[in-house]
Amino acid sequence: RRPDHVSDTINKGLHEKKSFFNVKSHVDLGDQTASRESKVISPAFLPSPPHGKSKDINKVKFTSVQIKKPKKIGKSPDNQIFDAFMTEAKQLKDQIDTKKTEEELAHITTLEKKQEEEVELFVQSRKDALRGQIVETVNRFKQ
């Protein structure tokens, strides 16, 4: 199934009888969005259906849309820049995620240590109190 924004653009292209139109694709990276435009042939200008088939564009099913890529002499600088940007953005996102996880883990261990210390202090105070009571009781019996 085609993404909605592509279908909308194709329908617009049919309506305006354009031979080419641009389809924007977006990649969401959390707080940044990378976008790239592709030139797409309007289905109205694709080869006409075989003889005898319906000429009505709305009744013709197009299984694929051709994406016109710029003629490549080596690798087009636009694509290289875009790929480099995407790679860098992904690395940044991974770094941020890792840092967040590390911070969360550090916070959890700090909390756990605090709780352990508090429990130890409580246990120690109870032991001291009980020891005190025992000493008092023994002293009372001695008298």
UniProtKB/TrEMBL annotation:
It comes from the Eukaryota. This is Uncharacterized protein. It comes from Strombidium inclinatum. The lineage of its organism: Eukaryota, Sar, Alveolata, Ciliophora, Intramacronucleata.
